[in-house]
Amino acid sequence: MHSLIAQIQPVDCAAGDRARAYLDTLTKPPGSLGMLEQLAIQLSEISGERAPTITPPGVVVFAADHGVAAEGVSAFPQAVTAQMVANFANGGAAINVFARQVNARLEIVDVGVVSDVDMPGVVVNKIRRASGNIAIENAMLPEQAQAAIGAGINAVRRAHQAGCRSVIVGEMGIANTTASSAMLAALTGTPVAQVVGAGTGLNSQQQIHKVNVIERALAARHFEASQPLSVLTALGGLEIAAMTGAYLAAAAYRLPVIVDGFIASVAALTACRICPAVSGYLVFGHRSEEPGHGAALEALEATPLLALGMRLGEGSGAALAFPLLQAATAMMAEMATFTSAGIADKTA
């Protein structure tokens, strides 16, 4: 991991300035395309190019189970993780549909599912069979956290070697909103009750129980809030660690990476705490309905592209945002300038 982090450079702000100036020569009032213009500038900063190529995108979904599911913090049983991995492999999940829509390369990676999911379409890189129950033990050993980060790095390396020019990262793991909420509370100091939502569909009493479980975990685990790997080891999940590695790798390869919802954003925050330069490579796809997502976005100083009332995960919201990246690059490549179109620019 350390050698990869050494490769991460800040985005090219000079390229962004050139893109900003070029945008003001296009046949539109300055700034009239709003966030799409900011997105075009960011993509230029990432690539160093005015109109970078971002297709094909690579979608990577990391799957793992969580020991804290034993505390009754999810509306679904733990077996659903493996069942959904099979659904991904068979092409039937939301992320499969949305990945096909944008012609994405899709890879499913098992980094910690309890049962065996060795089937066509699944890369098995199992670090351990589920994280520990954070209410009574650490989520993982430090070397397991490093190995899971490495699994995420390797997945993005495979996507890059396959020719992908952008990355979409997703996850699957029953009880992973509990781990993410615990991590976010630890990393930001936000009260647990403000970051816990319905997850897979909890009622109000179940949410109160979930808050209590997380508060117990925060009190019982020993971690340094200023050390992201310490928080990840004590409270996180194997798929959260893998996503963290994926963000680090995307930055090292200078690939734009679209961040999905709450869990993905907690992993993104972890990556940014490890290496702040990662932040320039992150495009935030959508605002999740999970209440903790707002706190995560605030900590990341991020504004998402979409707000569709979603809270599915899998990378679904990020995949839906991808056409906006296509539009931003097409605008820079194809839109006429005032000069080329023979249109009078605004007068002084």
Automatic annotation (TrEMBL):
What is the species listed in this Swiss-Prot or TrEMBL entry? Halomonas citrativorans
- What is the name of the protein in this document? Nicotinate-nucleotide--dimethylbenzimidazole phosphoribosyltransferase
| Top-level EC class | transferase
Enzyme Commission number(s):
2.4.2.21
Q: Which GO terms describe its molecular function?
A: nicotinate-nucleotide-dimethylbenzimidazole phosphoribosyltransferase activity
Query: Which Gene3D superfamilies does the annotation name?
Result: 1.10.1610.10, 3.40.50.10210
Tell me the name of the encoding gene: cobT
Biological role stated in the UniProt entry: Catalyzes the synthesis of alpha-ribazole-5'-phosphate from nicotinate mononucleotide (NAMN) and 5,6-dimethylbenzimidazole (DMB).
Q: In which pathway does it act?
A: Nucleoside biosynthesis; alpha-ribazole biosynthesis; alpha-ribazole from 5,6-dimethylbenzimidazole: step 1/2
